[in-house]
Write a structure and sequence with these properties.
There is one protein chain. By secondary structure, the protein is mainly α. The protein is built from 13 helices and two strands; from the N terminus they run H-H-H-H-E-E-H-H-H-H-H-H-H-H-H. The chain is globular.
């Protein structure tokens, strides 16, 4: 994932004469607000994965946590344009190379972690292996469709790394035509939305395509000067009213793709607003900000911790007290 702290190095000494990828560079406070947003999303993800491992995968209220994955990808897209690309001229080849390299690294991390899940972890416990249950085939299918869940349960872990890596690779490719056409990302986003609409009319769904499209929307949002973004989110009552409408909508219609987009923007906006509050963050906020600076490590760590807790408590009667202990333990170990 691109990180905001990289924006503090390798600045161009002279403002470039050609098209810039963003209007202004974020201040330290804005960087902290973005780190706070990512850190808060990681903490909420602990709750989501804790329910995956210790409760039911068919829990009715999962719809209210569907904003998590698209929110991460939305923030990743925002950082690509508003922070990461702001260091370079539009004609500079370095951001394309770095985005491409980072995308490949994320895919490699995803493959290694899931290979360990399929081949190594089953050797440490008794029973059938993930490979015996078609784990390798499900892993390969995730690269194309993005369907994480099967009849047998969750197909892979760390799935969010796949659409984020695709977004990075796509952004690296789009930077080539972007050198001569500043609306390249806008056109790509419209094309992706059209593909999703066409597939939906044929009752087909590809989560990878949907998440990458949300990432493109994040990139478009990142081209907006950060001052305007801050001005927009500094209306808590408007955000609260809009979020209430969103909750009512997903209660009635579940979470179709348009509401997935709305939920991601509203959730990120609300958390980002919390990150803007106060000049001197308290101890708890500092922990969240630190977690946001290393969000990839935090994301991997929280799943690893929950997997270990799940394995350790597998043969224990999961009464309410044990469930509560597992959740608190995951939070404490992560922080």
């Amino acid at each position: 994932m691109p990180t905001e702290t990289e924006s503090q190095s390798n600045r161009a000494s002279t403002p470039p004469p050609d098209v810039k990828t963003t209007a202004s560079s974020p201040s330290q406070q804005r960087i902290l607000a973005l780190d706070f947003t990512k850190g808060a999303l990681v903490l909420i993800m602990v709750l989501y994965h804790w329910m995956n491992y210790f409760t039911s995968l068919n829990w009715t209220y999962y719809r209210y946590l569907h904003f998590l994955t698209p929110s991460f990808i939305l923030v990743s897209g925002f950082l690509i344009s508003n922070v990461y690309l702001s260091k370079y001229r539009a004609t500079d080849p370095r951001p394309g190379r770095r985005l491409f390299t980072r995308g490949l690294k994320l895919l490699a991390v995803f493959v290694v972690l899931n290979a360990a899940n399929i081949f190594v972890l089953p050797m440490l416990s008794k029973g059938s292996t993930a490979l015996d249950n078609g784990g390798l085939g499900r892993l390969l299918a995730v690269f194309s469709s993005g369907n994480v869940f099967t009849a047998a349960g969750r197909a892979v872990t760390f799935y969010i790394l796949v659409p984020i890596s695709y977004l990075l690779l796509l952004s690296a490719a789009l930077l080539l035509p972007y050198r001569s056409n500043k609306h390249t990302f806008h056109v790509a986003c419209v094309l992706f939305l059209g593909c999703i609409l066409t597939l939906d009319l044929n009752r087909l769904q590809y989560p990878n395509l949907e998440f990458v499209t949300i990432g493109l929307l994040g990139i478009l949002a990142g081209f907006i000067p950060i001052e305007k973004v801050n001005h927009f989110v500094m209306h808590p009552y408007v955000l609260a009213f809009a979020y209430a409408g969103y909750v009512i909508a997903i209660t009635v219609w579940d979470v179709p793709f348009p509401l997935l987009i709305v939920g991601a923007f509203l959730s990120v906006g609300a958390i980002y607003l919390g990150g803007l509050r106060g000049d001197q963050p308290g101890r708890a906020r500092r922990h969240v900000i630190l977690l946001g600076k290393y969000s990839l490590l935090g994301y991997i760590a929280q799943i690893a911790i929950l997997r270990l807790l799940s394995a350790g408590l597998r043969h224990v009667n999961l009464a309410f007290v044990v469930l509560g202990f597992s959740f608190v333990a995951a939070l404490l170990l992560l922080c």
